[in-house]
Amino acid sequence: MAGHTSANGTGKAASSSRSPLQAEAASSEAARLLPQVLQLVQDFIASGEKPETYVAPWGSIPDFRKAVTLDLPDSVSTDAAGMPDETALMDAIKLVFDHSVNPWTGRFLDKLYAATTPVGIAADLVLSAVNANAHVMSASPVLSLAEERCVEGLCEVFGFTEKKPDGLTMPGGSAANTLAVQTALANVFPPFRTQGVLGVVQYLADKGKAPRPLLFTSSQCHYSLDKAAISAGLGLDSVVKVACDKTGRMCPKALEEALEQAVQQRTGTPFLINATSGTTVLGSFDPLPELAAVARKHGCWLHIDASWGGPIVFSHRAEYAGLMKGSQLADSITINPHKLLNVPLQCSFLLVRDADTLSANSLDAGYLFHSKDRRENAAMKTMGCGRRGDALKFWLYWVRYGKQGFGHHVDAGLQLATQLVEYIRSKPELELGPLAHPLFLQICFRPKQPSSADDGAHTLDPEQVRVRSKGTQFVYQELKSRRMFAVDFAPLPNDIGDYIRLVVHPRTRMDDLRTLVDQVAEIGHAYWKQA
Amino acid sequence: MAGHTSANGTGKAASSSRSPLQAEAASSEAARLLPQVLQLVQDFIASGEKPETYVAPWGSIPDFRKAVTLDLPDSVSTDAAGMPDETALMDAIKLVFDHSVNPWTGRFLDKLYAATTPVGIAADLVLSAVNANAHVMSASPVLSLAEERCVEGLCEVFGFTEKKPDGLTMPGGSAANTLAVQTALANVFPPFRTQGVLGVVQYLADKGKAPRPLLFTSSQCHYSLDKAAISAGLGLDSVVKVACDKTGRMCPKALEEALEQAVQQRTGTPFLINATSGTTVLGSFDPLPELAAVARKHGCWLHIDASWGGPIVFSHRAEYAGLMKGSQLADSITINPHKLLNVPLQCSFLLVRDADTLSANSLDAGYLFHSKDRRENAAMKTMGCGRRGDALKFWLYWVRYGKQGFGHHVDAGLQLATQLVEYIRSKPELELGPLAHPLFLQICFRPKQPSSADDGAHTLDPEQVRVRSKGTQFVYQELKSRRMFAVDFAPLPNDIGDYIRLVVHPRTRMDDLRTLVDQVAEIGHAYWKQA
């Protein structure tokens, strides 16, 4: 540690220099430091369970920025024995907790994820202590095996049993969707890997087909499909957005027409259809069997983006579990246990019906891969290399709750959502937005403009839309400044304007949801009175 | 929890159903569960500090597979109060520790990462408890601010001060390199974003240039550059591999010639040069000022893949810190604090000299982005969306060790590497492979074939190469079965065959390195005796 506090940045290293990262034995540092940090973690969780705790510490980003600055020290102070002062570190950790959104309140209804569970924290602790890279099994035996097992379990649940399936964790749903698009390109068009899009163009021309590869997805899909098209060198123009019905489901007939139009008018050659299971705004599920039939007819890869809605497959309610009927017909599926199943961020899987399709993503690396077996070399399945062992988190959840527990978890959320919709309907001063059918976990609503009698809101003129969206945004800002609930707002399909969107999580409390709805009604009432 | 153990998978949810994820208050579950897990973490660390502890629990993957199976239960058992039995979870966690590589031994010299520190574990604990998505600042105020600050700090260190720089964390070096390639494509070729590679071809044709975009990188670069070319729709044929000198550095003259040849022969139009700072096998640094001059002359984007070697910039030794001289001339830089700086996996940054270049990766998402400010919407900078707040880990390291501490850490590793090379040189029965100049942290060596007098090994015939590689692989397998050291082997440039490659980490103990070298000499001696 000699010289560690010296301002002389170019001083020669002492001949017996030791890294400051090992100023003491890790075991003694861990024994002193980690129980303190764990206490702060427990305090944060316990604080979240108090009804008076703010869900968001700041009403606005500018306020937050004014109050919080983060130091990047050149040098740090040490005690007489050369040990770095622990105060700065503990203060920094306290600062994180003091100024973070507290999802343990159960009042964070803003996004498609929420708090994790103590099991999730335990899993992260294990991952951090083991710190093994899941790129090859020899470096991370159990983490790689957990990934293999979770992939097997998920493939079975989704009906990937005809061929030998495979899959892997990805750092997020967007990354998984992107890898699906790239894998599809390489499998549908053999020259893609070596010659890229240029090779695909030649390949299509040789077959007398229109040279632009086209990707079809619904107008309500996640924007990662657009990003995947940019990433893969296709460009946004290669994405065809297909119309949805009023509940946000892709219309198979519109898909069929769009495909046939593209082929007839030679605007391009369809290669991929993306189905969304659980759209971001409304929580709708595209009809898989119908989409699969279209995909088969046109020789397209069928990908299902089930990042959000995939866990519905575990539901004990037949009408819900049936939403994933037809999943076995897909070529690939994305599912994110870090969303609906409350596994810590990030935990996302890409599954493929046919293991061999992933060989498109393999490259030799003599220093890394010492066998050709993809099961022992997960980095061969993806465009990345180093990987955190995210599957371990999901495996520990599976051990703790079982498949049936996942179903009960999902069903608890669905029941809350039903009760919430009933409660909103009971409030004449609120306007309920379009709902997924069957109802899923996102509920969109806004204060009703007092003079208006409609509730369907499908024939609004642009001025009415503007006025009502302003009402929504007022409510959103007011809720934000009160800091007791975190919700979001979103523009809804069919140009009906902005609605408050909240995501019911299975651990949300119904009492809190009622309070929130009451507040939206109250704020809206005050707003329209002065508007 | 009613029905949680029932086999009736289609049973209707009870009207008062509660998610099994909240069978009890999170605070009480955390208080009971997490101290037990933390104790296992501390035991794992302490065990790693015992000299007799195996670094790898298994000598081979088949042995591991035979001994370990991971359960995926349909249902779980509960106690009388309906609480899930904790034994299964704790057994699962113990299994992970019992069968994982133990990097705390300091004898894991196999890869470009090693054990983290208790500070790293603390950071992961905090991230897990907060579980905030760093896609927008409103969801993750402190994590987003930590990312902003770390990006500022790193940009300053690398000299990105002329324009307003920017950057973000990525889930790994490969992902960061891939995003750099995509960002370069979109900035060098404006039609890329909307029309993809097809638009680029037209754009180049209109300018009278050869239609294939070409990427130049050294023969010793990381394979993620190849993967990035596949991902971006360029294909492997668009990657031009440039020759290196004997120490693994790209030859600027060879680069210049390759570029001019491509332009003159119209095989393609160069758009990106990738420089590697710290190659995977030898740890070499490409000469940045020379490469930057070539990039400027040809209008190419200059990317530096400093995933591994980037932290050398913190060194207090001028000849080492100087290896990153010229970094300020790059357009983008990848650096992975999870490698040399022992931040937990994953922690990787992509930095750009000009913040505006990242706008190529932005897409509107009305439900997510409520301002155009990329500082408040990190997901606008990348092709992904949801993101773990990995920067927090690096910020807590920075608070704990300071910039100077990073330098002392790196220098401690360099000193060990120097001592190790001296020790290997003192052993006549060992053959040292080519070394980076100046020496970095990877050392390649193998047992010398007794009959051979050479040590440079540059004129070996294929049969000699085969014979010596076999010796290397024998040593590797024997070390593996002894389980006291984890090392890797790699084929070295210029067809001189396989060498044992070990990565000196700043916290490796010199005594252990000497023991390992002794063992390689001893195993090699026995091998050649019987060969």
Low-confidence segments of chain A: 1-16
CATH level-four homologous superfamily name of the largest domain in chain A = Type I PLP-dependent aspartate aminotransferase-like (Major domain)
Using the coordinates above, name the CATH class of the largest domain in chain A. Answer: Alpha Beta
Number of strands of chain A: 11
Q: In angstroms, what separates the terminal alpha carbons of chain A?
A: 65 Å
Q: Approximately how much helix is present in the residues of chain A?
A: 40-55%
Oligomer, anyone? homodimer
Query: How much β-strand is present in the residues of chain A?
Result: 5-15%
Strand order of the largest sheet of chain A: 1-7-6-5-4-2-3
CATH topology of the largest domain in chain A: Aspartate Aminotransferase, domain 2
Question: How would you describe this protein?
Answer:
Chains A, B: GO terms for molecular function: carboxy-lyase activity; pyridoxal phosphate binding. Chains A, B: The modification N6-(pyridoxal phosphate)lysine is found at residue 339. Two copies of one chain form a homodimer. Helix content of chain A is 41%, strand content 11%. Chain A is α/β, with parallel strands linked by helices. The first copy, chain A, folds into three domains: 24-53 and 57-100; 107-161 and 378-531, Aspartate Aminotransferase, domain 1 (Alpha-Beta Complex); 162-377, Aspartate Aminotransferase, domain 2. In chain A, strands 1-7-6-5-4-2-3 form a seven-stranded mixed sheet, with helices on both faces. In chain A, strands 8-9-11-10 form a four-stranded antiparallel sheet. In chain A, helix 1 (26-48) packs parallel to helix 3, helix 4 packs antiparallel against helix 12 (391-425) and helix 12 packs across helix 14 (510-530). Chain A starts with 25 loop residues before the first helix and ends with a helix. The model of chain A is unreliable at 1-16 (pLDDT under 50). The interface between A and B is large, with 188 and 189 residues.
